[in-house]
Write a structure and sequence with these properties.
With 458 residues, the chain is α/β, with parallel strands linked by helices. The chain is 37% helix and 11% strand. Strand 4, helix 12 and strand 5 form a beta-alpha-beta unit. The model is unreliable at 1-23 and 315-319 (pLDDT under 50).
Length: 458
C-alpha cells in the first residue's frame, strides 16, 4: 500500500489548494488524520465480507467536505486512498456516502409532493404512481446522444419523472447542457430550487432536478477534484444522490463498466430500493445498448415474508403507504436480484452501431435532435429513436406499468415475455405511443412553462 501511495499521492497533494468558497467565513476545520493513517495501513484489496473500516466512518469523514471542514490536502489524501484501496467501489461505502450526500442536500417538502402525486392517480399495472428516474454514471467514453435525458422526458407521459442531472463532466453535452440549449424557449433549470419542486408536479409530470441547486456543498471539493485529475467516489454519487430519493419508486441506472453493475445493485439494495435495474452495455456503455448485448442487474420487488411476522398488519382500515415504516419495523416489500442480458431484438428492434447514435458536436445540435423526437418529427426507424425507445421501454418494464392487461395507449397489450419475464415489446409500444400521441411533448412544454414562470413571476 505504501508503494502505491508513493506513486499516486505526493504529486497530487502537492498541487492541491485548500478548497474555499470565495470570501465566505472559514468554518472550524477538523482533522481526519487518524482515519487516513488507518487507510494507509490497510493490506492490499480485496477485503473480507466485513470491511476493515466501517463504511459509516468513511462516509462521515468524506461528508465533512460539504461543510468545508476538511483541508484540501486531507480531502485529496482521502479520495486517493479510497481509490487505491478500492473502498470507493465497495457497495456499503457507496451507499453510505450517497446517504450523507443526500442528507446534506437542500430539503424538499416530500409530504407535499406525495399529496400531489396521490391526486394524479397514475398507478397502472404494478406501478404505484411514485417518482421515477433514469440516469447513468457517465464516463463511458462513447459520447452518445443524451439518451437518458430524452427517455426521462418521453416517459413522463406515463410516469412521474424526477430526473437528477448536471452539466457535462465527461461528455460534450450533459443533461443540463442539452436542456438549456432548447430553442426558442428553454426551461430555466436554476429556477427549480428545493422550495419550488412541489409546484412543478402541481403543473406536470416532469421535473429536472439540477444538481447544483440541491448540492451546494459540492463546490468545496471542486478545486481538489480538478487538481487530482482522478475519477473518485464523487463520480459515482450522482445516480444515488437524487434529492427526492425517498420518494423514488423506480430507477434504471446505467454504469460505465461491467464491474460496477453488481456493486451498484448491492448499494441500491442496501438503501432499501425494491424496484430498480442497473444496466451496462457490452461495450462498457452506461445505457441499454442499441449495438448488441446489455448486461442487467434487476432488483425485483417481492413481498417481505417477515412483514406480517413482526405484527406490521394494518388493522386501521386506512390505505397503507408502502414506504411508511419505522426503522425497527420490517418493510412490506424487499427486492430480489436477477442477473441476465438483453438484446435490441427483445424490444423488437434491429441492432445499430454506436457510431450511428453519436452525440453530435454539442448541446445545440443535440437539442435539435431532442425536439425532433418529442415533436414526432424523427423518422420512426432512425437508430437514435430506437436507442431512446429501448431505454424508455426498460423503465416501463421495471416500473410494472407493462403488467397491465387492460387495453391502453391506442392498441392491444403485447403480452409476449422476454428475458427475465419482462414485457419488453410492450414497453417499446408504450414508449412509441408517448411520442406519437403528443403526450411527451405536452409534458415537456409544461416543464418549460413552470420553470419560466418561477424565474419571472407575473
Amino acid at each position: 500500500m505504501t508503494s502505491q501511495l508513493s506513486k499516486i499521492l505526493p504529486t497530487s497533494v502537492a498541487n492541491v489548494l485548500t478548497a474555499t468558497a470565495g470570501t465566505e467565513s472559514q468554518p472550524e476545520r477538523i482533522s481526519i488524520a487518524p482515519l487516513l493513517k488507518r487507510l494507509v495501513a490497510l493490506p492490499p484489496p480485496p477485503y473480507a465480507a466485513n470491511l476493515p473500516i466501517p463504511a459509516s466512518e468513511i462516509a462521515l469523514a468524506w461528508a465533512r467536505t460539504f461543510e468545508n471542514r476538511i483541508s484540501g490536502t486531507q480531502l485529496a489524501s482521502l479520495l486517493t486512498l479510497l481509490c487505491s484501496t478500492g473502498l470507493d467501489k465497495h457497495p456499503e461505502v457507496i451507499a453510505k456516502c450517497a446517504e450523507e450526500m443526500r442528507d446534506a442536500s437542500a430539503p424538499i417538502d416530500e409530504q407535499k409532493i406525495q399529496q400531489v402525486l396521490g391526486k394524479r392517480k397514475r398507478a397502472r399495472g404494478a406501478y404505484k404512481g411514485g417518482l421515477c428516474d433514469i440516469v447513468g454514471t457517465g464516463g463511458d467514453a462513447w459520447s452518445t446522444f443524451n439518451i437518458s435525458t430524452t427517455a426521462s422526458i418521453v416517459a413522463s407521459a406515463l410516469l412521474a419523472m424526477a430526473k437528477h442531472g448536471n452539466k457535462a463532466q465527461t461528455s460534450m453535452s450533459g443533461s443540463a447542457d442539452v436542456l438549456k440549449a432548447v430553442q426558442p424557449k428553454a426551461p430555466v433549470l436554476e429556477a427549480l430550487t428545493a422550495e419550488h419542486v412541489p409546484a412543478a408536479y402541481e403543473e406536470g409530470n416532469y421535473a429536472f432536478l439540477f444538481a447544483p441547486n440541491f448540492h451546494s456543498g459540492m463546490r468545496y471539493a471542486a478545486t481538489v477534484r480538478k487538481e487530482l485529475g482522478l475519477r473518485t467516489i464523487y463520480n459515482l454519487m450522482g445516480p444515488l444522490a437524487n434529492p427526492v430519493h425517498n420518494l423514488i419508486e423506480v430507477r434504471v441506472l446505467g454504469v460505465a463498466y461491467q464491474e460496477l453493475g453488481p456493486v451498484y445493485a448491492k448499494a441500491l439494495q442496501t438503501t432499501g430500493t425494491t424496484k430498480a435495474m442497473v444496466v451496462c452495455g457490452a461495450e462498457d456503455l452506461d445505457e441499454i445498448s442499441c449495438a448488441g448485448r446489455t448486461n442487467c442487474w434487476w432488483l425485483k420487488e417481492v413481498p417481505n415474508p417477515k412483514y406480517n411476522q413482526n405484527g406490521n398488519n394494518n388493522t386501521s382500515g386506512e390505505e397503507e403507504d408502502d414506504n411508511d415504516w419505522s426503522d425497527d419495523e420490517e418493510p412490506k416489500y424487499i427486492s430480489q436480484l436477477e442477473t441476465f442480458s438483453i438484446e435490441p431484438s427483445d424490444f423488437g428492434f434491429p441492432t445499430h452501431a454506436l457510431s450511428e447514435v453519436g452525440g453530435g458536436k454539442g448541446p445545440k445540435e443535440n437539442a435539435k435532435v431532442l425536439l425532433s423526437i418529442l415533436r414526432n418529427e424523427m423518422d420512426h426507424e432512425h437508430p437514435i429513436l430506437h436507442f431512446v425507445l429501448m431505454n424508455i421501454a426498460a423503465l416501463f418494464v421495471v416500473s410494472g406499468i407493462t403488467e397491465s392487461d387492460e387495453p391502453f395507449a391506442g392498441g392491444e397489450v403485447v403480452k409476449e415475455r422476454g428475458p427475465a419475464g419482462g414485457r419488453w415489446k410492450e414497453g417499446a409500444r408504450l414508449a412509441r405511443w408517448c411520442i406519437e400521441s403528443g403526450k411527451a411533448w405536452e409534458e415537456f412544454e409544461k416543464f418549460i412553462e413552470v420553470t419560466n414562470s418561477i424565474a419571472s413571476p407575473a
